[in-house]
Write a structure and sequence with these properties.
By secondary structure, this protein is an alpha+beta fold. Helices cover 38% and strands 26% of the residues. It has five helices and eight strands; from the N terminus they run ααββββββαββαα. Strand 4 (64-68) and strand 5 form a beta hairpin. The radius of gyration is 15 Å and the shape is globular. The chain binds adenosine-3',5'-cyclic-monophosphate (CMP).
Length: 146
């Protein structure tokens, strides 16, 4: 069942997603136009390590687990996003991501992703902040404590 029936409902709904905090109504309209909403059941493979990836996923509701190349697992939940790495550098998926619960997701294709970053700079900033946090965590997970 669709989560929204009109564009104004859709933007009201997007307001609740932390990645879009602080965006103007016009910027939210832009996101609404570029993102699709998808619902998946538990155990659905959303990204596969080593495969080509052409979408960014934003978690509106539910939980996913990321399994990295080294076998480390990272849980993601409401407001988190994944799939940005392959869109940014064009390399294959760096990890496998599966739904751990039924999920509601926003899906943004590659072309729409770059449009969004150009048109809505606060989203680009948030994605960079998250990427830098993930790099620090990954490094900390495999480095001896100082
Ligand atoms: P991508 O490489 O496109 O596809 C797999 C995704 O898993 C990746 O983008 C990130 O969004 C996510 N991911 C990879 N490694 C980590 C990590 N260490 N912590 C959190 N998310 C990760």
């Amino acid at each position: 069942m669709p989560l929204w029936r009109s564009r104004s409902n859709k933007t009201a709904f997007l307001r609740k997603v932390p990645l879009f905090d602080g965006l103007s109504s016009k910027q939210l309209e832009r996101v609404a136009r570029l993102a699709d909403q998808v619902e998946v059941s538990v155990g659905k493979r959303l990204a596969t390590i080593g495969e080509v990836g052409r979408e960014l996923f934003v978690i509106v509701d539910g939980e996913a687990v990321v399994t990295t190349r080294k076998g480390r697992t990272v849980k993601l939940g409401r407001g988190d996003f994944f799939g940005e790495m392959s869109l940014i550098d064009g390399a294959p998926r760096s990890a496998t991501v599966e739904s751990e619960t039924p999920m509601q997701l926003l899906v943004i294709g590659q072309r729409e992703f770059w449009q969004l970053l150009a048109d809505v700079p606060p989203i680009a900033r948030k994605i960079m902040t998250t990427l830098s946090g993930r790099l620090r965590d990954a490094d900390a997970a495999f480095s001896p404590s100082p």
